[in-house]
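Progress narrative, work stream C.
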Amino acid sequence: MSRKTSAMPAAAGSRKYFFYGHRKPSQNRPVVRGGRFSNRKFGSPVPVDTSVRRSTDFREWNFDCPTQPMPLSPSVPAIDRRRSPLARYILDSLRRHSRWSAVFYDLRKLRRVPPDLVAEVLRSRPLIDPSLFTRFFHWAGKQKGFHHTFASYNAFAYALNDAARPAAADQLPELMHAQGKQPSEKQLEVLVRMHADSGRGLRLFHIYRKMRGKFGVKPRIYLYNRILDALIATGHLDLALSVYDDLKVDGLKEEAITFMILAKGFCRAGRMNDLFQLLERMRSELCKPDVFAYTALIKVLDSEGNMDGCLRVWEELVKDGVKVDVVAYSTMVSGLSKAGKVEKGYELFLEMKRKGFVIDPAVYGSLVEGLVVEGRVGDGCQLLNDMNNNGYRGDLCIYNSLIKGLCTIGRVHKARKLFQLLMKEGIIPSSETVIPMLSVYADINDKANFFQLADQLGELKLSISDLMTNFFSSFITNANRGTKALEVFEELKARGYCSVSIYNILIECLQSIKDVKHALDLYKEIKNSKVFQPDSHTYCPIISCFVAEGHIREACSCYNMMKENSWTPSVEAYCSLVNGLCKIGEIDAAITLVKDCLGNVTSGPMEFKHALTVINTCRAKSPEKVIKILHEIIDQNCPLEDIIYCSIIYGFCKYASSEEARKVLAEMRDKKFLEESEFIIYEELLNGHLKKATAALVISGLKFVGL
C-alpha cells in the first residue's frame, strides 16, 4: 500500500486530464474555473506567507472540513466574533446594502447556504430591513435540494417578531405546510411565547385556534398553562375559559399551577363565587392550596382594590388550617390600612406580634398612615414609639403622615417636636414634611416660627425657592387664603425668597378668585423687575385678567409676546381672548384665534369647533342650513356663545351677503334663543363688520392703483 502511494505522484505527473471546456454556470456554481487541459500534482503543500493578507475565497469553502476563519477586524462587534465566517459575511452584506440585488450579488459568491447557516444568520436578530432577511430566507429555500429545518423556521419567526411583524410570523405555519413541513407543538410554543411576552392576547388566541383546528396540534399541559396565563394577564378571561374547556376535552389533567392561573383570573374579574368553586375543585381533585397560593390570590385582590374579597380568601385560608407566614400577614395589614379598614388591619398586626414575626417597617408605615387618615393620630404616635422600642427607625413617610395629622388637629407644637426628632435621626425632610406646619403658621399669622423653620431648612442647603413654590401651591387651594398668601409673599420678597414660579402661582390663584387688581399688580412687578421675566405660565392667566378688565389691546400684546417666544397659550386664555374680541367687534381676529387654537391645542373647546362648522355651512348661502346646525348644537346641550353668532356674521359676509346673517339672527330671536337686547348688539356687530370689510376693500383698491 505504501509503495502504491509513493508511486502516485510520478504517474500523475505524466498523465493528462481532459476537460470539455467551460461548464455552463448554474445557481450553485455560477463560475467555472480552469482551462481545457490541466495537470493534477500531489506532494507537500506550498508554504503560505502569513505576512501577506489575502481575502478568503468562499468558492473553496468546505462545510464538512471548514478552513481557518478569516482574520477579524477590530471594528467587528464582539457578538459577531462568535459566529462562523460565512455567517459574518452574510450579516455584513445584509447590513451594508439596502437593496436585495446587491445582497444577491454577494450571495452568488457562496457555493451553497445550508439550513444551519440560515438559522445562524436569522438567529442573530439582524437590525435591518425585514424585507431583506425575508428575501434571504426565501432565496435559500430555492436552492436545489434545499429544505428548511425546524431551526431555520423558528429563527425566521423570532426575526419577524423582533422586526415588529407579528402578523407575518403568524403565517409561518402555512408556509411550513406549503413546503412539506407539518407544524408541530414546538412551533406553536414559539409563537405563544412571542405573543405572551409582548402582551398580544388576541393574536395568541388566534394562533392557538389555527394550530389546533387547521393543523391538529394539541398542546401539552405545560403549553396550555402558558396560554391560559397569557390570556388572563391581558384581560381575556372568557377566552382563557374556552381554552380551559379544550384542555378538558383533550383529556389532560390539571396541575396546581393551572388552578392558580384560573384563580388569579377570577380574582381580577371579581368573580368570587367562581373562585371559591374552583378552590373546592382543587381541594377535591388535587390538593389544598398552600400559603403561597393564598398569598398570591390576596396580592391580586389587593392590587384590584377588592379588600372584601381579600377577607373572604383569608377566611378560606384559616378554614383550611394553613400556617400563615409573615408575607401574607404583611400584605393583609397594608391592604386593609390603605382601604380604610384600619381596625381589622390593627387586629392582624397584633396577631403578628403575638406570633413573634419580624414586622417590616413598611407595615408600620401603612398602619400609621391609615390611623392618621381616620383621625387617630395619638394611636399613630404610640405605634411609632412601639416601633422605636423594637429597634426600628421611622422613615420619612411615617413622620410626614404624623406631622400632617398633628397639624390637621391643631397640634402644631407637637408636630414641631416630631420634626426636631426627625432631624436628630439624620433624616432629610421634604416639602411634604414642612408644608403642613408652614400652613398652620401662616393661618395663625405666626411669622416668627414660619421664617425660623424656613431658615432651618436653608441651613440644610435645601432649595427655599422650590419649597416656597410647593407651599404656595398647597396653601392657596383654599380661596379664602388669598389675602394671607399675599402677606406672606411680601415678607418673602423682603427676605429674598422669591421666584417666577411663586409669582405665577399667586397670579393664577388671584385670577381664579376674580381678584384681578392684585393679579395685575403682581404682573407689573415681575415685568418691571430686573431679576425676573414673565414666562408662558405668567401670560396665560394675565390674558384673562386683561380681558376681564376690558383691556383687550394689552391682552393681545401678551398673546403676541407668547407667539414671538413660540409659547402656546392655554385653552382658557384662548377662550377669554376670543370672547373679548367678539365683544368689541373684532370678528376677523377672533376667527383667526379660533383656527390658531384648534391647530395648536390637542383638545380644543367645542364652541370653537362648532364655530368652524357654522362658517363652513355658510358657504352654501342657505340660512335654513345654518339654523339647522344651530339646533343641532343646542340639542347637544352646548350653549350658543358669542363666537357662534360672530361666526354666522363672518361666514355670510364672506361667502354671501349680510341679509342671510340678519335672517338667521331674526329667526333665533323669534324662537326665543336671543333676547331683544342681544339681537340689537349682534346687529350692531354685523353693521360694524360690514364697515370694516368695506374699508378694507377701499384701502386695497387705493393700494392697487398706487394712491
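Work stream C, second folded protein:
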Amino acid sequence: MADQQPNFPAGYSVGITPEVRRLDTKLSPPPAGPRFAQPVIRPQQLLSPLSANDSRTGSPLPHLSTPPGPPMFSSPVQPAAVPLRTPPATPQPVAFSATPSATPPSNRSDGTNEFRHQVLGDAEDMVSLSDAPNVLFSARKVLKQKKLMNVPSLGFGALVSPGREVLHGPQIIQRVPHRCQNCGAYANLYCNILLGSGQWQCVICQNLNGSEGEYIAPTKEDLFNLPELAFPMVDFVQTGNRRPGFIPVSDSRMSAPIVLVVDDCLDEPHLQHLQSSLHAFVDSLPPTTRIGVVSYGKTVSVYDLSEGSIASADLLLGNVSPNQESLKQLVYGTGIYLAPIHASLPVVHSIFSSLRPYNLNLPEASRDRCMGVALEVVLAIIQGPSADMSQGVVKKLGGSSRIIVCAGGPNTYGPGSVPHSFSHPNYPHMEKTALKWMEHFGREAHKRNTLIDILCAGTCPVRVPILQPLVKASGGILILHDDFGEAFGVNLQRASTRAAGSHGLMEIRCSDDVSVSQVIGPGEEAHTDNHEEFKNDNSVSIQMLSVEETQCFAVSMETRGNIKSDFVYIQFGILFSNLYQDDIIRVITVRLPTVDSVSSYLESVHDEVAAVLIAKRSLLRAKNFSDAIDVRKTVDERIKDITSRFGSQMPK
C-alpha cells in the first residue's frame, strides 16, 4: 500500500508536511481471526533433549511458561508441513533481593548438602558432580599423553551456555569475588585453603592469594557456608547502576518496548498468514507490554496508537535517511507510537487488518523495500525526546528495547540497500557500502540498548549476508522460515520474551598445559581494554553482544604437552549486565581427572557432545556448495581416523 497513491473517499482530510504526511483511513473492526491457544504443559514436555544450539535445553521450573500454541489458519496457503519443535520459552529473570544469600539453608533436599560432603570424598566420586549445568564436555576424563589427547579427528572440548538458566538457579553472592592476583582466576571449591591465614591457592597457576581474612575458619566444613567454596557455579551480583536516570522495574516487558517492523510488499497468500500470526501474537502479550507498529515499502508508515480503532499513520520517504526536522515532528508531535497493549489492542488489530497485498506487477525481489529508513525511524521513536536532553534529566524505564522485523524480501531502497539485480554494474561497491551501513547501524542500536531481530519468511531471497552484520552488531537474531505460518508465529513470540543481558564477556582459563584452540559461537575476540588484565593471564576472552539462554559456544581444546597432574581445571568467567542493569559475574569451575588408559578415556566420552563439536567444526569450513561436498568427504575420513586410532581391527 506504500507503493501507490491512496484514494481517499469524500470527507477524509490529509495533512501534508515537506516530508511527513498524515493519512487517516477508517476501518471496520478486525475480524475474529485465529488466536494463540493457551499452552498445555505435559510432564514429558518439561525436559527437552540435547540440541546443537543449546547444551541442555529446558528445565522443570514451575515459573516457566511454554510458547503458545500455533494459530489455526484457514487461508488457502498451508502452514509449514513440519511443525516446529521448540524448547520452553526463555524465563524472565528474577529480581535479586537485597539480602545476601551466602549461607544456603541446611535443610535443603535438592542434593546440595550431599554435594558439599562429597567434595571431601574420593576424587573418583567427584567425576559425576564435576560438570556445571551450563557446561558439557566431550569427555569426562583427559588423557595425559599429548599425542593421544590431540587426535584432531575426535578432538576435545565443551559446549558452553553462558546465560542458560538452571534448575535451582546459581548460588547468589552480593560481594566482589576473590581473584588470583597472578592469573585472574576466581576462588572456587577446588582451591587449597590455609585455614589459619585464610590464604587460598589458585588451581590454574598455583599462586597463593589472600582473602582479607574471609576464608579463615576452624574447619574445612565451615568453609562450605561460602557458596563459591561449595558449588561449581556461582553468581556474584553487584546491584550498582552505571546508567544515570535508569529506573529498574519488576516487569521487564513494561520497561522494554517492542516495535514490529512489517514488510509492506507481500503477496496476498503470504500477507494473510502474516496477519494471522500478528493478530495472535499481540493477543498473547502481557497487558503491560509497550508496543509500536511500523511498515515499510517505498515509504515508511509509522502508526499512531492514539486513534481508537482507526489505523492512522505518518509517512516518511524511504529513499534517504530522515533529517532531524522530520524526526522531531514525529517525536515531539501529538501522535503516540509506543503504548501499552491493554490500551492499544483494538487499534493494533485494526492496523494489522488494514495491511494490503502488493498490487504492482513486479517480481518479489524487484520491489522497493526501505528497511534501513524504517529502522532509523524506529530507533528515534524508542529513544524519544530525552535523546536531546542531558543525561539523567529524564527518567527512562530500563531494559533492552526490541525491534522485530518481519521481512519477506531484501532491502533494495534507501540506506543500507543493494540493487535489485546482481548484474548491476555498481553492485560490488553498493554491497560494500550496504555492509558498512548495516554494521554501523547495528552498533548504534546496541549502544542504545536496542536489539534488532529479523524474522524472514517466504521464497524470495532476503540477501542474508547484507542483514547479518546488522543483527550481529545489535545482539539480535536472524531466522529464516518457509512461510509466515506456525513456526514464524512461535518464533515471533519468542523474540519478544527473550530476556537478554548486555555487555557480555566470557573468559576461559585452563590449568596445566591445556589451551583453547578454537571457539565457535555468537561472539568475537575481546579487545584488551574491555577487561581487567593480570600479570600472567593466559585466558581467552570473548566479547558477547548479548547474553541469552539459548546461546551456545563450542570450545575446542588441546594440550601443549604431557600432563603430569591428576586433575585439570577449567574455569569460565562470564561478566554481563542483566535486564535490571545489575552487574553479574558468573563463575563456573570444572575439574576433570587425567588418565593414562585409552579405554578409560573412551568410556568417558560424551558421544553427543563430541558429535556436535565435530559437526560445528566441519560446517565452519563449508563456505559454499563445493566446500560442502569436500566437507562430506572430510567427515568420512575423520570417522575412519577415529576408528583406526581408537578402535581394533575386526575380522572380515
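Confidence is low (pLDDT under 50) at residues 1-130, 243-254, 387-398. No further action is required on this item.
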